[in-house]
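WARN no homologs supplied; continuing
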Amino acid sequence: MSNRCLMLFTVALVALAAFSGCAQAETLGRFIYSVNGNCSGKPVTVSVADMYTNAPVRAEVRFQSRLYGLLQDVYTNWTDSATGVATFQSAPAADYFITIYRPGYVPSELNWRVADCPDCTTNLGCPSNASCAAGKCVPVTGECGFPRNHEWVAYECCDDSACPADRECRNNACIEVTGTCGYAQNHAWIEHECCWDSDCGSNRTCVNHACVQERECGTDADCPDDKACAAAGSCVQIIGECGHAVGHRWVPYECCSDAECASGTCTAHACGAEQTPTPEVPQPPSCFLGFALAALSGLAIAIRK
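OK structure emitted
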């Protein structure tokens, strides 16, 4: 065979192969797909559908990345037949080569980059109890309060020291301390001893929020017999020297010692009677003197005779 014939034969084979490939390609289905998610640690989803019917297609999805210059499988899964979705959860940062394959379809290939993305760019990307700082959502903290809308909201108080002395901290608010008979001091209610006489009981009265004894008497007659009513309204004991209290006055005794009596005798606080000299009573003559007188009388009579 000449060179010219060989060349014509080769061209014919190439043309036949090309025609055969085109015919085969026309019989294979084609994918439409979408990839979402490009931040590390977050899901990357691949959605696959038929180009002509737009119906979900169950296809194999393969993620590969290069290690030491060689492609290594990182994730392989089939899309869901109902949704046509496969999800690569928590994909690490890398440049991926993604292949989508199913028998009877022309394979699809693409490059996809997953990078380290910030958690947030504004506070709106964070929960309400966190704020965005340097691309990270950080908890909002503080003292005596709570986080709200990415900020710290302070309470009015968390203990009594944050309130005026006449208020107390209750449910994180300063509330006025109140009572019925007393005053507020150091965040507490101090009770008076009394505000009305009825608070003091019998025989006492309320004066300047203190219970004091009522006037014990108005006249001497209100007091015991041995006491008198003083100007302050109290019964006081009557005292003195050498006497006794009776009838609300001091009654002196006649005497308290013998020296106070003319008779020189003080008995039961009374002086004894003075001693009067006793007159001398004539004594009858003795027997001898009688005999002598009688003899003289007899003699005188005899002489007269």
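Residues 217-272 form one domain.
OK
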